[in-house]
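Narrative of activities, Objective 1.

The group set out to show that a structural description can be obtained from nothing but a protein's sequence at a throughput compatible with the screening campaign. Below is one input-output pair from the validation batch, recorded exactly as produced.
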Amino acid sequence: MVGIKNNRRAQYTRKIIKETVLSLLQKESIDSITVTEVCKAADVNRTTFYRYYDDVYSCVDSIETDFLDNLKIPQGTSMIEGLRIMLREFYKNPVLSNLVFVEGKTKLLDRMSHFHDHEEMIKTTMDKYEATYIMLGVQGIMKRWVKSGMKESPEVLTNIIVKVVFAEELQDKKALFDLHEVKEEQTDFSEA
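Output recorded for this entry:
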C-alpha cells in the first residue's frame, strides 16, 4: 500500500482543501473561516480535513511552506534578482499573493526575508534599524502592489523598490519634511 503522503488521492484532497481555503480568504478573514465551512466548500468530511491539517491556520502554514519550497532562488543570487524572482511568483499567483498580506496571520514575508544572509551587512545598531526600515518599506510597497491588483510588472515594481530603498527620487520630499518640522517647532514655541 502506498503511504498517505505519496498517495495521489491524498495529494488531490490536500490540494482541494488548500484551494478552498485560499478561495475563502478572498472573501473573509482567516479568523472567521471554520473547518466546517472549508469542508462544505471542498466537499470533504471533517475527518478527512483533520487527517491533513490541525486547523485552518495549519492549512495556511502548509500553503506558505509549499510556496517557499517551490520558490527557486539560486545560491549567490543578488538581493535585487531574488526580489524580482519572488515578485514574478506572486504575479503568477494573485490568490496566494493576497494571502501574504492577511494582517498578522501569515509568516511568509518573515520567512522570505531569511533567504539572504544579511549578517555581513548588519554591523552596527544603525544597520539594524536601516535593515528593518528597508524590509518594512519593501513589504509596504509589495502590499500596495498586491492590493491594487498588481498593475505593474514584477520588473517595473523591482525598479520602483530599488529607487525607493536607495532614495533616488526622494530627496525633494526631504525638503517638504524639513519644512513641516520647522513649522511644528514654531508652533511649539508660540504655545509656550
